Fold:
Amino acid sequence: MKYQKDKIYDLEVEKQKKIEDLVAEDAKKFKKQFIERALKLVTSGFGLVSALAWNEFIKEVVEVYIKPFFGKNSGLISLFIYALLVTALAVFITYQLSKFGGDIKED
Structure:
């Protein structure tokens, strides 16, 4: 009888250990995902702030240097030049970052 109780107790302890291991594994996965997502969120936030700062800079360059060159009625031309500058900057930065990312993956 005592042997049977010990066996049942051992099975219960083993079940409890498996449950604890599963919970610990899930907690580790959750922690990793939480950190990864928080990092992406913070990085995206700083990226947005950076993009807004560049946006203001480019607008000011167009306002100070482009508009006086084309005259007072240069609204459409100024917007076109602004769009070209933003697109060129975006392509250049994206290209450089993709090269940098490729170098990291190769290592």
Notes: The longest helix spans residues 2-70. The chain has one domain: 2-106. Residues 2-106 form one domain. The chain has a mean pLDDT of 83.
